[in-house]
Amino acid sequence: MNDELIIGDTELKSRLFIGTGKYSSDSLIPKILEKSKCEVVTVALRRIDLSSKENNILNYIPKDTKLLPNTSGARNADEAIRIARLAKASGCGNWIKIEIISDNKYLLPDGYETIKATEILASEGFIVLPYVSPDLMVARSLVNAGASAVMPLGSPIGSNRGIKTRELIKILIEEIPLPIIVDAGIGKPSDACEAMEMGASACLLNTAIATSKNPILMAEAFGKAVEAGRKAYLAGLGNKSYTANASSPLTGFLNK
Amino acid sequence: MSFYDIYSRYKDFDIDSFYNNISDKDIELILQKDILNEIDFLMLLSPKAENFLEPIALKANSLTIQHFGKTILLYTPMYLANYCTNQCLYCGFNTKNDIKRKQMSLEEVEAEAKYISSKGIKHILILTGDAKDISSVEYINSCVNILKKYFNSISIEIFPLNEDEYSKLIKSGVDSLTIYQETYNEYIYDKVHLKGPKKDYRYRLDAPERACKSYINSVNIGALLGLDYWRKEAFFTGLHANYLQNKYPHVEVSISTPRIRPHVGDFSPYHIVSDKNIVQFIVALRLFLPRCGVTISTRESENFRNNILPLGVTKMSTDSNTSVGGHTNKQNQTNQFNICDTRNVEKMMEDIKTLGYQPILKNWDII
Question: What CATH number was assigned to the domain covering residues A11-253?
């Protein structure tokens, strides 16, 4: 069965997106992509050093991987737009993850500024993937602004706390006609699996892999968890019940 | 409201009596907590907490990896000038010291920038003495306009400015401010700053806040350890960082833990601060403020810097020179103080990698 994820004009087989920060060495990245089967990699433009041959993270990202530069460090729409344009001009393609954060304590995104940046960048031809809190009204505005996907957080960035915003993400999955990619807070493969079982289109994570004692093995675990969750979603989960439903009901004889 | 209000709340606090009443149980309970308050932090700085240094360090290591990953940002200082109007007992630039005074011309700044950037450094910290008439905001602004051609991030460590002046430099490309209070103890502050504009304790104390109001990206604060009892300085530094983080959430706050180093002049520290004390300061701070950056300069030895790297450190200087134009002109120059770790960029990167960490040369872009 074909089950590709389509974002913009790109078909993706893998539904796991990976971040590239926090690693002890960028040289781990190729193996992590290989083991997780990940096809989309997000990189903070502020970390990319195009002038350096030795210290350029892009050297470690295989050419067939979709690059998703992000606007990490932007505190408002203007800064995000400038970073996005710089990324495009630097040859990083036309995908952009809008990340606008002016709260360093919880690293929660600014919905209003994100909508403004999305509208402008989408009109310029960018494939815009905005990182937001899971708010239905913000997500609807992003649809109108031309976003290509919506990336709600499961819990604060780097917290490894799992899908704490489950009920709100579920609403977005039901209501928003764009891929919903759960981003941030996914701490263990079962969290990623849970997001996929709910019907999310994909998951993006970084800290859980990068700070693991064995990042390559953990990447493989996440790749499999996302696949498992997606298959479970497609298969359809059984209904939940608070009472037992015996396979052979006690009153079944009445119908005989 | 200024940080001075919080400082005033604690400035005459009897820390010794407080520490006499702390038990092992108090420290054990703090180790179970996810979010620490000011008093928890004060307790982690206590002599009693020294018995728990290893479990505190383990937690600090884990929090640092969670928030910053296994990465260390590298930067280098560039001294633009050493003219000064102050008489600070602990500083080589003290007006009373008979040293060769110099301010780099813009041509010299460009040559120095070209040389430093050729080594791969992308984050630069520019410094001057406190001589606003000579090393004026306009002069610094002209330097920034040159430096942004060579570096991705420009930090300033200069005399305190007003909001308009900070705004002007930020618009030109400055993204980070480093300013040390030297000592949070108001009485000692007055005693070690004999003459000059730096005598104004409040104007200096509120400088990081003025930069935050001017929408700077990051501020780095600290005390020059050795002037007052280190546990108090560590406590006030942590409180100051916490105040700025909470009030200006758009700003990345980090702290430094500099110890007084040998310099021209005969000042000796009032209090000795040991390696163990610095470790306790850093790990306690990490538990209190998990997202706060921690900067360790080349004032510390190579061995010490390698060993404290996993305990909470996020930024390190490398290939430092504390004399004016000292990167390109190494002769007949007076250092502000003597550096201890003399590793060049290449060696520093190699050693960081050997320790299982990734050296980061670029983590910011002037956009």
Answer: 3.20.20.70
